[in-house]
Design goal:
The chain is of the alpha/beta class and about 375 residues long. The protein is built from 10 helices and 9 strands. Helices cover about 35% and strands about 10% of the residues. Bound molecules: zinc ion (ZN).
């Protein structure tokens, strides 16, 4: 053991005590360097100077990477040739973020498609639920839940084109896949009353994809037509088929497209991934950012720690895990506790949703926490 390793090992112990962590680092293991992220939503009202100030503040507070939302399932906020362009927000902020020393990862919606022109030209690209209803015509829960089918070649190409466009932007560091999943077959607990629904089991109107292509593909594999299943929620192969449909799209179609241009590939993922058919642990991405939005699940910071740990354990590759934290409604103390919980769960860092939700006090709290952590090293 070198002196440095020895000191690091010692210090991991001290940090663990100071932050009330459970000891996880094994002796001799190098503590990993942390990386922190912030999602960003387009804002026309912010000037160049506003962004310069924000990026300087982020850098000062220990944020390393930003995730601007540059495609929202309909409009592009970059100079796109394939989607209607709302305004070239990326063109405005990319040089400023890079000048401030931040990585920039293009955040794109993946499966939902809310462009009426696409809906009209390609009604067959959309997922179909257990009642035979198309997500293009009758989306579940909210009017933007118009998910494309991951097994339709046209839909695959459509999503791949967005990845290609973003990966082609030379200063971009990575492509960030959001909504890379099925609609929630069961919503998070705290969201059900919001939509005035009770989901005590899987109901067919929220269960996808029973389109002709998926039915035939599954029938070829197993001899079973999924519409004939008595209880699809209990049929292991049918469940796995849906996981594999998204995994195939990510691993064989989207990630290679970004990697061709030497870009990182990351994804925003669910802790309760079964509910959205999103088996991200096998995707081998550069990083996953699980949305550990505890209040959606009526849970406290312990839950963030638990799911960070669970996620880290489930990853079969060198994929990094950054705990996604939902800042709206959090006090600076809540945020401090959430970050400590992510660290205690052995996260590689945290990701804030979203930069616009943080007040000065929140930034101060993050800076203080990072300084404390640095000192303890
Ligand atoms: Zn389908």
């Amino acid at each position: 053991m070198t002196r440095r390793e020895f000191i690091n090992t010692m210090n991991t112990g001290i940090t663990g005590l100071a932050l009330g962590m459970s000891g996880r680092s094994r002796a001799g293991e190098q503590p990993q360097s942390l990386k922190n992220w912030a999602w960003m939503i387009p804002n026309r009202r912010m000037s160049e100077d506003d962004y310069k100030a924000l990026f300087a503040l982020m850098n000062d507070c220990g944020i390393h990477a930003v995730l601007p939302e540059i495609y929202n399932g309909h409009h592009a906020f970059y100079n796109s040739a394939s989607h209607p362009v709302e305004f070239d927000w990326l063109g405005q902020i990319l040089p400023l973020a890079k000048a401030a020393g931040l990585e920039v990862h293009g955040w794109m919606w993946s499966m939902p498609c809310n462009d009426p022109a696409i809906r009209e030209q390609h009604p067959d690209w959309f997922m179909v639920n257990g009642l035979g209803e198309s997500a293009g015509e009758k989306p579940a829960y909210v009017n933007y839940y118009r998910f494309l089918c991951p097994n339709r070649t046209g839909a695959q190409n459509f999503i791949q084109t967005t990845v290609r466009e973003i990966a082609t932007i030379s200063e971009i560091d990575g492509v960030h896949l959001d909504y890379i999943r099925f609609p929630d077959v069961i919503l998070a607990e705290a969201l059900q009353p919001k939509y005035n629904i009770v989901q005590d089991r899987e109901y067919p109107q929220y269960d996808y994809c029973y389109c002709q292509v998926c039915r035939e593909k599954f029938k070829t594999q197993t001899g079973i037509d999924p519409v004939e299943l008595q209880d699809p929620s209990q049929h292991k192969e049918w469940i796995q088929f849906r996981y594999d449909s998204i995994s195939n799209l990510v691993k064989n179609i989207l990630a290679p497209e970004a990697r061709k241009m030497n870009k990182m590939v990351t994804a925003a993922v669910f802790p309760n991934w079964h509910m959205v058919r999103q088996q991200w642990s096998v995707w081998h991405l550069d990083a996953v950012l699980p949305m550990l939005y505890n209040t959606f699940y009526n849970a406290g910071p312990d839950w963030i720690q638990q799911h960070t740990q669970k996620g880290k354990t489930s990853l079969t590759s060198k994929t990094r895990l950054y705990s996604g934290l939902f800042v709206p409604g959090m006090s600076p103390d809540d945020l401090t506790n959430a970050i400590k919980a992510a660290w205690a769960g052995n996260a590689d860092g945290f990701a804030l949703f979203n930069a616009g939700s943080l007040k000065d006090e929140h930034w101060k709290a993050i800076k203080k926490l990072n300084i404390e952590r640095e000192r303890e090293k």
